[in-house]
Amino acid sequence: MSQAADFLRERLADARPVVAPPVVAMVLGSGLGDLAERVEVAARIPFADIPGFPVGAVSGHAGEVILGRLGGREVLIVSGRVHYYESGDAGAMRPVIEAIAGLGIGKLLLTNSAGSVRADIAPGSVMMIEDHIAFSGLNPLIGEASDARFVSMTTAYDERLRAGMAEAAAKLGETVFGGVYMWFSGPSFETPAEIRMARILGADAVGMSTVPEAILARFFGLRVVAASVITNFGAGMTGAELSHAETKEMAPRGGARLSRIVETMLQEGAFDD
Question: Is residue 62 very low, low, confident or very high in pLDDT (cuts 50, 70, 90)?
Answer without folding.
Answer: low
